[in-house]
Specification:
Layout (H helix, E strand, L loop, with lengths): L7 E9 L2 E9 L12 E2 L1 E4 L36 E2 L5 E7 L4 H4 L3 E5 L16 E6 L4
């Protein structure tokens, strides 16, 4: 987003026998340089297919969490573990069987400013969307 223009990285999705391996490498995340102030960020696949929006939500077109089975939060197919910042950098991988690579191609992956609380409906109270990317199948 314009407010967090320094955030950049890649999220890759690999089809494996057990499901999909999600690997994220993100840099330029907001961070504080004091002890015990590590940043944690919400991380989701959203149903929308564009990283566009308006002044109050630069990524409004991402829509809600990807949730084809209409499950309650945090059982949405697009709910992923949070990203733990390390001086502005995060690396994460997770194996999931909640979606296929084909099902998410063309959708969006979003990083939120706050961690998902895994309770609040419908989106985990994870705050503003600070970064977005459209998932492309190669």
């Amino acid at each position: 987003s314009p407010k967090y223009a320094q955030v950049h990285g890649t999220v890759k999705f690999y089809k494996v026998r057990e499901g999909v391996l999600v690997a994220a490498e993100i840099a330029g995340l907001p961070h504080k340089s004091v002890p015990c102030a590590g940043e944690v960020f919400g991380f989701h696949i959203h149903e929308g297919n564009a990283c566009t929006g308006n002044a109050s939500d630069p990524f409004a077109a991402t829509g809600g969490h990807f949730n084809p089975q209409s499950c309650p939060h945090p059982q949405h197919a697009g709910d992923l573990p949070p990203l733990f910042g390390n001086n502005g950098y995060a690396w994460s991988s997770v194996l999931t069987d909640r979606f296929t690579v084909d099902a998410i191609a063309g959708r969006t992956v979003v990083i939120h400013r706050r961690p998902d609380d895994f309770t609040t409906q419908p989106s985990g109270n994870s705050g503003e969307k600070i970064a977005c990317g459209v998932i492309k199948k190669l």
